[in-house]
Amino acid sequence: MQYTLKKSLGQHFLKDESVSQRIVDAVMEEQPQQLVEVGPGAGAITKYFLKYPALHFKAVELDDEKVAYLEHSFPAIVSKRSGAACSIKTR
User: For 43, left (φ over 0), alpha (ψ -120 to 50), or beta?
Assistant: First the structure.
């Protein structure tokens, strides 16, 4: 499944896996119990947070195309659509 960048939404996606992993490692050093990711896009960071089953993780994405991409790419994601926003959580 493909997705497109939307300049109207100011979308810029992180593609370097090592940077994504370092960001998640730094966050997880703080041992959060809950986490909200705003604008997960294509899931560069999301996929690493999904590896922590004890983490109460949610992501909020406005772009329906990205929500569909995330649901397709990461089966653990369940979405709730509400108006212009979509809250994504793990099962």
Answer: left
